[in-house]
UniProtKB/TrEMBL annotation:
Coiled coil: none
UniProt key word Signal: yes
Keywords associated with the record: Signal
A Pfam short name: PepSY_like
Span of domain Putative beta-lactamase-inhibitor-like PepSY-like: 54-137
Signal sequence bounds: 1-18
Protein name: Putative beta-lactamase-inhibitor-like PepSY-like domain-containing protein
InterPro entries: PepSY-like (IPR021533)
Biological source species: Chitinophaga varians
Top-level taxon in the UniProt lineage: Bacteria
Length: 141
């Protein structure tokens, strides 16, 4: 449960690369695409991130973040998941490469091309894995 709350805070927080924007600054095409893809979304907050529009929202009491380009094209959705949902290979990698570190948040990322990644926030960095749990990269938040 702690993971869900923490990821929810992360999704709705402003990072160094994101800037909160009001709903009236979001193009109609983006809002329409978002509403079509997530018709039950509630408590939507928008940010600009690297030229794209990111909506942080809730759907059935779960926290999500979805990214759309300026034309309304869906790019990816990030969903809060418990650390136990990470693939075993990812868990093993974290245990061996981040000894004693606390995993702050975990998420499943589904990209528009169908690629699934997992993300674990550790020591202020996002550690990214593929759908099998293979380490891909580490990013600063």
């Amino acid at each position: 449960m702690k993971t869900y709350v923490l990821l929810g805070c992360m999704i709705f927080s402003v990072s160094a690369f994101a800037q909160k924007i009001s709903q009236d600054k979001v193009p109609a095409t983006v809002k329409a695409a978002f509403s079509k893809k997530f018709p039950n979304a509630a408590a939507v907050k928008w940010e600009m991130e690297k030229g794209n529009f990111e909506a942080g929202f809730q759907d059935n009491s779960q926290h999500f973040s979805a990214v759309f380009d300026a034309k309304g094209g869906w790019l990816e959705t990030e969903t809060a998941v418990p650390a136990t949902a990470l693939p075993m290979e990812a868990t093993n990698y974290i245990t061996s490469h981040y000894k004693g570190a606390r995993v702050k948040e975990t998420a499943k990322i589904v990209k528009s091309n169908g690629v699934v990644n997992y993300e674990a926030e550790i020591n202020g960095k996002d550690v990214i894995f593929d759908d099998k749990g293979k380490f891909l990269k580490e990013e600063k938040e």
